[in-house]
């Protein structure tokens, strides 16, 4: 009898050599095997040539003509006829087929049909046709025979808990891998999708429940504290910022358990101000707040902003002790258990640039947790990948801001772009020029260092260079010169993506724009959405890659960050956008975070109603036991 975790080498018929092959495909256990999806399917039964559509088909026809064509690579072509209709068949480097096939023979062929031509089909010359048990069902590529044999063995002897409603999980998996019809396959796939989402939602609910079982003493809050905090803010909070503050205030001052909240929203919508409110509330309760940033530039920016607001109880963490109540740092602070233990609030800014293990390290002493995302998170990810968090969303911009004109520019049209840049500089405005890399190494992409030389030559001594390789002092000086207006053009790598807030900058030029992700481009554009003046974002690229072209067309056409997030999810997929690194749970095998939004909602509803049943609970423990509480390591 097999279980989900049975090593694949222990499956009968899978020896060390085959186990090594399967391991290279990510199949190490019986569970991995059962969740491995076929490349395509063949269903029992023959299709008439007239009804055959492109894809994998089974055709029974008479060979009207067959010949081997003279060429360096042997090619065999045949004309197949099932009466009123005909199609072609072709084999490459398989000249042996002419030894088995003759004109006039009636043969069953199966393979891929493309534009009326069967490509590399297999065949059976028996009058009774093929043994459907050997060919029907899923096809798994190079190791097809090994996988099919292992699947049949495991499905015949595996012990798995039932699905929600008492349906057989083994039966659904068998119907998925070896369906008798397309309809049977579709029903099985829907069952497996829903079951997988139930298991994931249940895991997230268990994580949330575990987090909420922890206890903490509520902080003090009243209108005087609220007025005191808001006196430091240079603007009045928008309605949606206030709603986010109210939720955070409720979590920290009313609930007797640690906050676990995700804050996301449009670029420039004031998420940082909300995070600062939470940090100042913590400090006014004589408790410590940690604000963790992915870069020293962003950490310095937050420090300077708080100091500029008049809040003096803030420090930049170094190896020396830090006595302030608000401490700002990079991930380096995660090695200091003493300061982590003293924290009542931990804020992760740009949290997607931290791993789930780093979040676990920072929260092992059960502080309040606030995760801040620079850009909006697609709705399906918010429901699934981050389903164990409470969510606050900010769509509203803090002040009325000017329009941003976005244009995709070919390199040969650069002069026209520079003319607009000159006009903006003449008005006293400033600009960013961002490159995808520091040094040369790819002849198709200009480096920041080379680009800096070109910009300096073109615009005299108006520019400075900022890269991640520079020392901290040089970074601080470059940002300070730019912010104070001594430098008009800041040439940078993607380090400019975050941590730079200069309302006087009205031009963003992104060289090699096809090398950046969609959300990255939107975030870079957000650097110039800070004032009422019209701003210009230029995306320089001569790419011919279809995916890159799609990205550039979207960013040129769409300004809404939530819409861009959905486009980014479709273009890149959830695995690249937010992988296991962010949530600590295995990726989905059957369901899609892109296409199955309604199914996610339904699964979430069933879980919250407590209607999943014992089989789903048992399956969650089987699949996620090691990862379930990774976000709450103690």
Which labels suit this protein?
globular, 38% helix, 634 residues, alpha/beta
Q: State the helicity in percent bands.
A: 25-40%
Radius of gyration: 30 Å
Q: Into which percentage range does the β-strand content fall?
A: 15-25%
Report the average pLDDT across residues.
Answer: 87
> How many helical stretches?
23
Termini Cα gap? 36 Å
- Report the principal-axis shape: globular
Strand tally is 20
What would you call the structural class? alpha/beta
Q: Tell me the strand order in the biggest sheet.
A: 10-11-9-12-13-8-14
What's the short story on this structure?
The protein has 634 residues and is of the alpha/beta class. The protein is built from 23 helices and 20 strands.
Would you write up a description of this structure?
With 634 residues, the protein is an alpha/beta fold. It contains 23 helices and 20 strands. The strands form four sheets. Strands 10-11-9-12-13-8-14 form a seven-stranded parallel beta sheet. A six-stranded parallel beta sheet has the order 15-20-19-16-18-17, with helices on both faces. It has a five-stranded mixed barrel with strand order 2-3-4-6-5. Strand 17 (463-466), helix 16 (472-484) and strand 18 form a beta-alpha-beta unit. Helix 6 (182-213) packs across helix 22, helix 7 crosses helix 9 and helix 8 packs parallel to helix 9. The two termini are 36 Å apart.
């Amino acid at each position: 009898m097999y279980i989900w975790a049975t090593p694949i080498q222990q499956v009968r018929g899978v020896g060390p050599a085959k186990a090594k092959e399967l391991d290279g495909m990510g199949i190490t256990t019986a569970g991995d095997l059962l969740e491995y999806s076929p490349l395509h399917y063949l269903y029992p039964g023959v299709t008439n040539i007239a009804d055959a559509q492109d894809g994998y088909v089974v055709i029974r026809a008479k060979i009207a003509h067959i010949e081997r064509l003279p060429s360096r690579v042997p090619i065999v072509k045949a004309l197949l006829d099932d009466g009123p209709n005909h199609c072609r068949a072709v084999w490459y480097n398989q000249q042996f087929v002419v030894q088995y096939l003759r004109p006039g023979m009636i043969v069953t062929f199966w393979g891929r049909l493309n534009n009326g031509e069967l490509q590399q089909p297999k065949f059976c010359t028996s009058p009774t046709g093929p043994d459907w048990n050997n060919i029907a069902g899923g096809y798994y590529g190079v190791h097809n025979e090994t996988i099919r044999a292992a699947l049949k063995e495991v499905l015949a002897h595996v012990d798995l808990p039932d699905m929600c409603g008492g349906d057989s999980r083994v039966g659904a998996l068998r119907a998925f891998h070896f369906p008798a019809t397309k309809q049977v396959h579709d029903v099985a796939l829907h069952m497996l999708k829903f079951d997988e989402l139930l298991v994931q939602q249940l895991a997230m609910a268990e994580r949330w429940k575990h987090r909420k079982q922890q206890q903490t003493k509520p902080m003090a809050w009243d209108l005087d504290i609220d007025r005191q905090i808001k006196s430091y803010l240079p603007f009045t909070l928008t309605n949606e910022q206030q709603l986010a503050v109210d939720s955070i205030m409720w979590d920290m001052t009313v609930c007797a358990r640690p906050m676990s909240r995700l804050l996301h929203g449009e670029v420039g919508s004031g998420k940082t101000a909300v995070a600062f409110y939470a940090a100042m509330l913590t400090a006014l309760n004589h408790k410590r707040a940690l604000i963790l940033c992915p870069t020293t530039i962003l950490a310095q920016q937050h420090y300077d902003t708080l100091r500029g607001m008049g809040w003096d109880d803030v420090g930049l963490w170094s190896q020396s002790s830090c006595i302030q109540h608000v401490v700002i740092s990079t991930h380096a602070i995660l090695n200091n258990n003493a300061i982590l233990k003293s924290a009542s609030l931990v804020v992760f800014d740009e949290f997607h640039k931290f791993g789930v293990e780093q979040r676990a390290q920072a929260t092992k002493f059960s502080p309040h947790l606030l995760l801040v995302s620079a850009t909006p998170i697609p709705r399906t990810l918010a429901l699934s990948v981050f389903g164990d968090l409470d969510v606050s969303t900010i769509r509203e911009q803090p002040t009325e801001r000017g329009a941003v004109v976005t244009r995709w520019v070919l390199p040969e049209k650069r002069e026209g772009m520079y003319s607009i840049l000159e006009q903006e500089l003449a008005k006293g405005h400033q600009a960013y020029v961002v490159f995808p890399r520091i040094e040369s190494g790819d002849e198709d992409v200009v480096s920041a260092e080379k680009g800096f030389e070109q910009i300096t030559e073109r615009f005299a001594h108006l520019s400075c260079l900022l890269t991640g390789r520079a020392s901290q002092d040089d970074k601080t000086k470059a940002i300070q010169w730019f912010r104070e207006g001594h430098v008009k053009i800041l040439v940078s790598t993607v380090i400019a993506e975050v941590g730079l807030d200069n309302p006087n900058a009205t031009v963003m030029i992104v060289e090699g724009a096809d090398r950046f992700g969609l959300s990255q481009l939107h975030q870079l554009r957000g650097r110039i959405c800070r004032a009422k003046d019209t701003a210009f974002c230029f995306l320089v690229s001569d790419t011919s890659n279809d995916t890159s072209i799609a990205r550039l067309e979207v960013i040129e056409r769409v300004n809404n960050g939530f819409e861009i997030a959905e486009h980014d999810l479709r273009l890149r997929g959830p695995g690249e956008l937010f992988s296991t690194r962010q949530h600590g749970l295995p990726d989905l095998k059957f369901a899609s975070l892109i296409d199955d939004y309604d199914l996610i909602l339904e699964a979430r509803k069933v879980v919250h109603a407590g209607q999943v049943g014992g089989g789903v609970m048992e399956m969650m423990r089987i699949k996620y036991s090691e990862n379930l509480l990774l976000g709450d390591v103690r």
